Amino acid sequence: MKLKLRIWRQKNAADKGRMVTYEVDDISEDASFLEMLDVLNERLAVEGEEPVAFDHDCREGICGMCSLVINGQPHGPERNTTTCQLHMRKFKDGETIDIEPWRAKAFPVVKDLVVDRGAFDKIIEAGGYISASTGTAPDAHATPVPKADADKAFVAAECIGCGACVAACPNGSAALFMSAKISHLGLLPQGQPERDDRVVNMVRTHDDLDFGGCTNTGECTVACPKGIPLEFIGRMNKDWLSASGK
Amino acid sequence: MTETPDLSEFYRSGAPIADAKAPNDLPVERRWTQRKFDVKLVNPANKRKKTVIVVGTGLAGGSAGATLGELGYKVIQFCFQDSPRRAHSIAAQGGINAAKNYRNDGDSVHRLFYDTVKGGDFRARESNVHRLAEVSTQIIDQCVAQGVPFAREYGGLLDNRSFGGAQVSRTFYARGQTGQQLLLGAYQALMRQVDAGNVELHPRHEMLDLIMHEGKARGVVVRNLVNGEIKSYTADVVVLATGGYGNVYFLSTNAMGSNVTAAWRAHKHGAYFANPCYTQIHPTCIPVSGDHQSKLTLMSESLRNDGRVWVPKQAGDARKAADIPEDERDYYLERIYPAFGNLVPRDIASRAAKNVCDEGRGVGPGGLGVYLDFSDAIERLGLKAVEAKYDNLFQMYERITGENPYEQPMRIYPAVHYTMGGLWVDYDLESTVPGLFVLGEANFSDHGANRLGASALMQGLADGYFVIPQTVGDYLARNPATSVPDETVQAAVDGVQAQVDKLLSIKGSRTVDSYHRELGHIMWEYCGMERTDEGLRKAIGLIRELRADFWKNVTVPGSGDDLNQSLEKAGRVADFLELGELMCVDALHRTESCGGHFRAESQDEDGEAKRDDENFSYAAAWEWTGGDVPVLHKEDLVFEYVKPSTRSYK
Amino acid sequence: MAIASIPSLYRSTVGKKAIMAVTGVLMVLWLIGHMVGNLKIFFGLEEFNGYAAWLRTLGAPALHEGWFLWVMRFGLLAAVVLHFSTAAELTVRAKRARPVKYQHRAKVNGSYAARTMRWGGVIILLFIVWHILDLTVGTVNPHGVHGEAYQNVVAGFAPDRWYITLFYVLAVVSLGFHLRHGLVSAVQTLGLKNPRQDKALNVIATGFAALITVGFLIVPISVTLGVVD
Questions:
Q1: The pTM is what?
Q2: Which of B296, B602, C166, C194 is a Cys-bridge partner for B610, taking CB atoms 3.0 to 4.6 Å apart?
């Protein structure tokens, strides 16, 4: 395949950044999107130019490190798929592909396509856990959990923290990310004691970090590589309203 | 057994080594309890004054950092990823073993201990393995308390499955994402400690050297990957939880960033590296599709519960799978191992696949693949049932290959997955460098020559949640703090700076990846599923040449003072180029076959691995000598409880 | 569900949306009443003007004439102001949350109704201003006589003033879209949405939005077409 790539290049956080056009050919249809970028980077390195920086690690769609807004869509055109699992057979020979970083104030660009998602860690830090110090746990069977709750908690827990929801949201909100963790823990009996504090503190931290507010546009769930449903945002809202009034 | 070849040009023999911490005079089931009682305790008021550095935030590092923080130590923790939640433990699919016996199917701590020692082909230390089996039950309790959403039954209790050839159902799981869920549990516990101010977290920092003072590990030198700053941190003790080194093969199921650098640089300061040649090749991965390939993807082992593995009987049969009639198919695992069939352990399934491909019967591009066929399962259980069990895996397969496994059989091939070798540690998980503790895949301790499925997660969490908090305390109580002189710290920083400058200044013509790929080819070819004396000698020569060329001819674009992924890779590949040679030396000296190490010279008439307990019942701990050949220190392995026997799965 | 404290409501993005949801629901309830009243125009001048007059006496004798109307107006005004100002704040916040725009504009993956809430809202607000000047105060109405609601409506939408009717149509259609998303959004914001009833909720929201749109449009269109005169 032959492709024209327009890629966001930005030296560092202070640089303004711009789209730069590259052409690649001889790309296998079986290559993944990131492998296609590897091929470009190998060439750039040989030519003495700096390769395009992009985040990636497991390349199995689970670590949440890869990002990239491809033709305006976080993680590209295929539903429920991370960029690293996206393959070139989904593109047409000769196509022009625009590649940009996640764009949000809370995710400042580090370099090229790499952004700093430390804000997500801060949200988790604010309460995205159950306080169960090592050694304090009762037997695992001490508290049965209804299967339906456990299954739903699992769906919420599938979030990989990649930030595509923020990248896709017209408001730059992290509501989907945040609500997934709040719902995961809030659906389990072990998560009840801290349920109110958790939602209040996480939402406050989210707002302080300059994420936008959710206006229920539904863009996030479409972009989410794990298909985390919007219902968790509703759940979070309910929890928040209930907790704030106590 | 052939005569022992002369290998003096590759290594020297040194004094034997032994674990001095486990109370070996006691019965194995009492050793950990006694050890916990024997440890010296740190006064709670003094814990704040003790600094612990933890490198890595996977299951072992994350759980260690969280627990040490809870205990009140001052923890400084690093990871090279942008968040602790990204560590590669997250990719583990299958599950985690624990001797809960919730199924009442005869499981027990002793059985898990027995299975693990046997599964490791009698090359692991009994004391350590028994402790692992003991704490396995607490791990499950701990994770459930943290909110890990394990699979449950309709009654609300935890579900279990049998995994990786185990005869009991002791594997706890969270669909195909057990590693993710366990890691997020540890990550959340860690972030709670960050919030409490007990853990100071530094993501996007890579450890590049160990700071030594008075013969003890006293700190690390790290590079801030965002701005290139090289900085030192000192502490009373250093804990490495930096994972395995499977990426020495270039293509593996490891994450792109997984590397040996932290462990290797510690090795150069005196931490022995044990059993480097023990690598686990996982049988069910998606085959390589072309030169562009950057990594391999594992398909969960659970697929072998229902899929049948086969190749055409006739070599060179190029027909499509559907066109090959039943009687011209060779279900070779079922044929050779009628008792276990498709569920034989990983090392055996992998080698069998290699053998049929070597006979020219492999399928797919390059003939490097075998079929994993679900058509019988679909017929027997119905499409719905198969979908319910495996749909996410099937979708992943289709996404990567463009082929639909409901309509045509999957193609699979073995790939490097896990490394059992690692830094040598004693019962306390302390390396041969005092004050340097090593956890998880980075150490060599529990899996011997072969790791059983669903045991890696168990080990990482056992080390981090339950072992290290006890043993680090003992070390701290016995080693009062002294200050590290500035010159010592500065010298370490200067050393790291010099290496960074050197890599940037070569400005040759070959990219880092091209060296890495070539090293990977050498390792896979000669130190992969089957190793020979001749091949390993050749590989050592090739690696030496490649390493020399690397330091003359590599090109690292960009500068050292901002995010530079080429530079990061260059440092890691430089270490792989040294480790690769040691792996080959280790493989060369171990003329027996055991677990993940198969020497072509050591097999029986049927081509099965032949272990040599008389000569090789030891762990090989290698000492770095600074450019001279490595020195071998043997730790004799004593089996009081699980008597070595030949593993037979026929 | 306990009621969240007012300051925390106002500070948080979740609370701001809750304010929008509650004020939105109040305005929708009022709209239903307004629409029912409008439809009385088809029963003739007397009934319509009588209804308008009755509105002024609502609550009597407990309330003085017109008091109820003023209480309602202030209530409505508060709802509009809160609804609009929180929306404006969330909009400003959204702009601030993404200082550098995408070069390749994303195509809309969610619903169009959702993506047009802000512009739609502004159009509706402008419309309300005109509408009050037209039919409440009467300044821009060609008849504009207090107490003669029927005549004001007939004059306002007279066939030769078709462009005014067109403006009403546009505004009311915007309102329809706004309600279509707004209703579902309010249910979601207040955490009352049950995913198993998603479909039903969507059908109800669409039906209700259509009903309101038609209910409000039928009067001016009938006048312009001469059905009512």
A1: 0.96
A2: B602
